[in-house]
Amino acid sequence: MDYTALREKIRQMQDEIIGGIQDCIRIDSVGGEPEEGAPYGKGPKEALEFALNLGKTLGFRAVNVDNKAGYVEMGEGSEMIAVLGHLDVVPVGDDWKYPPFGAEIHDGVLYGRGVADDKGPTIGAIYAMKAIQELGLPIDRRIRVIFGTNEERGCDCIKHYVEAGQEAPVLGITPDAEYPLIFFEKGMTTVIGGKKSPQQGGIRVLEFHGGTAGNIVPLHCRLVLEGEHEMEVHPGLSVEIEDGKTIIEAEGVSAHGSRPELGENAVIKLMAAVRGLGIGGDFQKLADFVTEKIGTETNGETLEICFRDEETGETTVNLGVIDYTEEEMSLNLDIRYPKNGDANLVYQKMKEALASYGMEILEHRTTEMLYVPKDSELVQKLMEVYQEGTGEKAEPKAIGGGTYAKMFKNMVAFGPMFPGEPDVAHQPNEQMTVENLMKSIELTAAAMAELAKK
């Protein structure tokens, strides 16, 4: 395996490649309201048309799948390998140093929403196909770059691609995470537990809310009680009495829900502090459940859902959002488990645990785990590509998060971020150095060429 010529060809095309990526980043492709011919909004449709037109200009077959997804393809053969990327992006937010859709380069760094997630590597993959074609590298399988336009809002795009009868790749990669590659993604179960029309206790709960999303460790939690109640104040906890009300607030340390042990949960901190006030009613049951069944434990041991596997880690449990209103009290639990985990057992144990505190499962959904064995053709070839392209020996990774690779069998996340690089996806000032972006495209090109050989 020697892809020196392919890397050199990619470098010769650098100005063209970076220019094409910049043109795509300049399209505001945040999902929007559906329009005629634009099911996910105007921006994602424009980005889709850009990629399809680029593919046609470079001489490839280009197919639009009902304005929800698309692909460009080269080669012949009964089998097809693919790179799967997405052209939609998350909202930009605040605190950008440079315009989020400006695609500006400063000191060798390309800034813009989507440069890493996923426009940069996806558009780069189309140019990588061109390099393979111009070099006339021998391939036995067709090569396809598939792009979705709804990944950030639920992946309906690729679900539609499949439902529309489009071909699935025999092997594939998605540049949706990091190198060297992700061979395992934990199974995920979301349980929203609680109770409709909760009953008040001896102390009336006027307001209670904590957290922003199920997959984030809550940074803030706020409880407002009727009456004036003295209580001990701990670090990260504030108590204020005004107008006959007691306002209790807790501050935590945020972290991703797949690594809850790296954070400090504001909801759990507040619940532990107020549990002894004797609030009563259904709120008391909620507080007891949170402190007794979850507490500071993040592996589900007390809930009897802790699975451990030497290769793929152990269970994580994140209490991400909690609410209390007259209509409903609820808590959102993000549960992730290794390859020996059992989604049915997780559901049953959660149902039993909630029932013992007078609650039930209000909503429930499960995402299957992704597991591609390390000795598979896909992982073996990609690890060889990574070592040949970087000179580094590395081990494939197991993660708690989910990537676009779950949309197809025999697909794994391969790049685009290199070890040690900060996680810039969804962050202000999303960026990649031009050098690392080009290195990533070189690896994608080599992966395409290698996987296309039988």
> How confident is the prediction overall: mean pLDDT?
96
Largest sheet: 8 strands, antiparallel
Q: Based on CA inertia axes, which overall geometry fits?
A: elongated
Beta-strand residue percentage = 25-35%
Helices, by number, come to 10
- CA radius of gyration is 25 Å
What is the first-to-last residue Cα distance? 14 Å
Query: How are the strands of the biggest sheet laid out side by side?
Result: 13-14-12-11-17-18-10-19
Unreliable stretches (pLDDT < 50, length at least 5) are none
Structural class: alpha+beta
As a percent range, the share of helical residues equals 25-40%
Overview of this protein structure:
- The structure is a single chain.
- With 454 residues, the protein is of the alpha+beta class.
- The protein contains ten helices and 24 strands.
- The strands form six sheets. It has an eight-stranded antiparallel β-sheet. The protein has a six-stranded mixed β-sheet with strand order 1-2-6-3-7-22.
- Strand 13 and strand 14 form a beta hairpin.
- The longest helix has 18 residues, at 434-451.
- The radius of gyration is 25 Å and the shape is elongated.
- The model has no long low-confidence stretch (mean pLDDT 96).
